[in-house]
């Protein structure tokens, strides 16, 4: 049910409808609680024919899929990007930080890569290994039951391998690798890099009666119309509404402004502006759950004022907004001559990689802390805007005359189709006090809400990791018979590492911890300062692992939500 | 197993039926949906645009950038870059000119001045060489003589000083738009041989392709991959996480 305004008091008001907000809504509603979800963007259901972009052809877009208005192209299911009209943010000094926001029901889960990795036992106490950052106040063993339930509830491909820091789970069977992935596997193993079937949240096998099975169109980034991939709307919010145990009201196009508190220091409501009429409303709740994304949640708290607190709600520790960190990301691409003139067949497959490489290194023998996992790919994929743009580089490799026109040129392009391959790393950065976001005193967005400004610098921890990625990837690509297209980057160029924020794994702005002087929430995501406010997104991450954050966001949101249910029953809230 | 029969079995269940209905296929359980079948006829537009995207697009569609003369010139060049072949249409029959007009308005900073300036350069060059003619008034031989001069990258030693540099840069940019426009058209996709964008059941690389590349699936892993015969059976696990269905 979608509504605009109301005077009733909900059991829980949730800000945000992505992985954290969606899981919270589902768990809370399944326990009979009445919840409101406040979402800044429009309603979105990939099954709606007016909305869906899945299975559309490039010529149906007047820009042939170009990324003019959406960073990942016209058909990508993210209503947003690193820049949003009239919702600015700023950076300080030589900070490079890019903040990706997707304003829609389900948020960034509609377009994400679906690489679904649990954190491992070591990932919860990395400080014990290298003295850097902070340990989590929880262990893998405490979270494991929730990961298990997420696996069974959402569905994830994979194989149980008994790896020490890449735990087993309840996996759906993975699809067979594609041709280039078999070539990668061979070359990677030759380089001492392990390769396993990928762990992706797509249904290769039936999971329940509400969701279809993957039909291998490779378009998960468009959000699946038969719900065969994980998107928060399809897999969490719609089932929560359908179950009908607790009421779920979805307030779309509503931009949360602040958490309202009373004189006793208890949160009572979320105030928000309706984007449709630009008026201000409140949604009252016994409990407030913030799941607006790490930076948006921090912003909301900083913009909330309570008696006696001038630095934002829940910020008596002074760590709110601090320890912001994103995954590292660097990559290399190659042209593989042995893949020229390929026999044509449909190799779309799942939306993304069928194999992956978890971190294999021993940091004691390396000059950087923390590791990375490897993603890769190269297929005879759907041509989109940009097709043919790299052809001159290939002509140089093949010693063809560079340029040209007419049917000889077309034949060349046809001949090299599907012969490109990329490898990229996604690694763990070290959370630092000095990498942070704060309110920019000089700026508001079009809703009158003060905006964020960012302070963020990579250090040699990350740079040397990126260097290791480049060396590893170039070696593997060469062993695949590839001619490398990516330039050799220098130290000054961060070895090709992307700006923080570019990988869209930002976490840590309201980290959890046992010590209220050093952290914003306790181990259940509950604010140390305001007991009826919880954070169920990646803001609470004490550290990022070399894994994508989504599976952990959902496991923690599940755990935190059940804690809320239990605390409400015990009348502790 | 017979491939068609296999697909019929695999996609013929309840999920398969729903799936085929949704993509507008004729009926469940026949051949895989042919590559020409898509969703384009089902609804107008190309999926939900946000309000600002829709407003922006309306502004673009209500404006005009290139003149008829410029568009005609682009068309002649486009058909030189992608002429009709035995197995494909020429560029102007695949919507490439309309695409280029759209892109000039969609990414004005990238394209407008460079394309318009390049067209003017081309006409000036043609006029000087061929007695005052515009490019489209030149004979096909004269047009190709100019194109041959600007269609190839200069050696690095000449890159800065060559007087044709402006024309070469222009042709490079236009060639990108024409080629990308062609390969993203229905005709171009067919010419290229892209066979996806349709519901199917991936069951690995064809054996003859594996053989040609000297590769094979790891026999130890084969039992772990999805058994597509059992894809519609609901997943269940034992307590250790072993799939039992």
TrEMBL record, chain A:
<dbReference type="GO" id="GO:0016491">
    <property type="term" value="F:oxidoreductase activity"/>
</dbReference>
<dbReference type="InterPro" id="IPR003953">
    <property type="entry name" value="FAD-dep_OxRdtase_2_FAD-bd"/>
</dbReference>
<keyword id="KW-0560">Oxidoreductase</keyword>
<protein>
    <submittedName>
        <fullName>2-methyl-1,2-propanediol dehydrogenase</fullName>
        <ecNumber>1.1.1.400</ecNumber>
    </submittedName>
</protein>
<keyword id="KW-0285">Flavoprotein</keyword>
<dbReference type="Pfam" id="PF05199">
    <property type="entry name" value="GMC_oxred_C"/>
</dbReference>
<feature type="domain" description="Glucose-methanol-choline oxidoreductase C-terminal">
    <location>
        <begin position="438"/>
        <end position="557"/>
    </location>
</feature>
<dbReference type="InterPro" id="IPR000172">
    <property type="entry name" value="GMC_OxRdtase_N"/>
</dbReference>
<comment type="similarity">
    <text>Belongs to the GMC oxidoreductase family.</text>
</comment>
<feature type="domain" description="Glucose-methanol-choline oxidoreductase N-terminal">
    <location>
        <begin position="186"/>
        <end position="325"/>
    </location>
</feature>
<dbReference type="Pfam" id="PF00890">
    <property type="entry name" value="FAD_binding_2"/>
</dbReference>
<dbReference type="InterPro" id="IPR007867">
    <property type="entry name" value="GMC_OxRtase_C"/>
</dbReference>
<dbReference type="Pfam" id="PF00732">
    <property type="entry name" value="GMC_oxred_N"/>
</dbReference>
<keyword id="KW-0274">FAD</keyword>
<feature type="domain" description="FAD-dependent oxidoreductase 2 FAD-binding">
    <location>
        <begin position="11"/>
        <end position="44"/>
    </location>
</feature>
<dbReference type="InterPro" id="IPR051473">
    <property type="entry name" value="P2Ox-like"/>
</dbReference>
<dbReference type="InterPro" id="IPR036188">
    <property type="entry name" value="FAD/NAD-bd_sf"/>
</dbReference>
TrEMBL record, chain B:
<dbReference type="InterPro" id="IPR027056">
    <property type="entry name" value="Gluconate_2DH_su3"/>
</dbReference>
<protein>
    <recommendedName>
        <fullName>Gluconate 2-dehydrogenase subunit 3 family protein</fullName>
    </recommendedName>
</protein>
<dbReference type="Pfam" id="PF13618">
    <property type="entry name" value="Gluconate_2-dh3"/>
</dbReference>
